Every structure is written in C-alpha cells, then in structure tokens.
Amino acid sequence: MHTQKGPSNPERSFGVSVGGVLCLIALALVWRGRVARAEMVGGVGAVLLVLGLARPSLLKWPSAAWWRFAKALGYVNARILLTVLFGLVLTPLGLVWRVTGTDPLSRRRERWSGWSAYPARYRDRKHYERMY
User: Fold this and answer.
1) Is 67 exposed, middle or buried (0-12, 13-18, 19+ CB in 10 A)?
2) pTM
3) 97 pLDDT exceeds 80?
4) What are phi and psi of 9, to 5 degrees?
C-alpha cells in the first residue's frame, strides 16, 4: 500500500494556496488603507496564483523552498512551542488549581453523585415539537 506524503502536484498546490492567501491579505490591506503594501503583496500573490494554475513547473524551486520551510516550521511548532506551552502555562496552571482545589471540569467523584436532575422543561410533551 502506497501512502502519499504530500500533494500530488506540490508546485500547483504551492502556487494556488500561497498565491490565494497573499491575494486575500492584499484585499485586507486595501481595506485597511495600506495600498502600497497591498500592491506588493497582491502582485506576488497574483503571479503565484497565475503560475500555479497555468505553469506550475515554473514554481519548482520556490515550492521546494516553501515545503522545506513548512517542515522546519512544523518541527518548531511540534517541539519548542508545545514544550513552552505545557511547561510555562499548563503545568503551573494545573498546580495552582490543585493547590486551590479548583475543579473546572467538575470531575471529582466526591463532589458529584453521578445523577443529574431531570430538567422541568422535558416533562412537558410540547417540548419535543420544538426542540431547539
């Protein structure tokens, strides 16, 4: 069984996706009144979009550089940023919650009997005619 690691045509995928996003960013820049920046970003985006649709083979080297950058960025996100997030945010927060007795998910068994009261609105049969 053959598993595909990336898109079947990475050059086309690069041109269309990156070019499309750059065009959307250019529209946002025009909306914000940054016309000069929008012209630059939109020009690059339009060129990438047209080349991605018409001649993706011309995007061989930019696409290869982009995929290398994406792989490096994925490595950084998966290891460094998540380590920082867990080490500096979630672990201290969990320790503070444990010390203060906070249970944001209400999962402590001694506090929860396992029974939820039947809501009064469900006792009326008309509730099922208009559930939302």
Assistant:
1) middle
2) 0.56
3) yes
4) -130, 85
**Residue 35 burial by CB count (10 A; 0-12/13-18/19+): exposed, middle or buried?**
exposed
d(CA 48, CA 19): 5
Is 87 exposed, middle or buried (CB count within 10 Å of its CB: 0-12, 13-18, 19+)?
Answer: exposed
Q: Which two tokens stand for residue 73?
A: 């960025």
Position 24 pLDDT exceeds 90:
yes
Torsion, CA 122, CA 126, CA 129, CA 132, rounded to 10? -50
- Mean pLDDT value across the chain: 85
Contact present, 51 and 15 (Cβ < 8 Å): yes
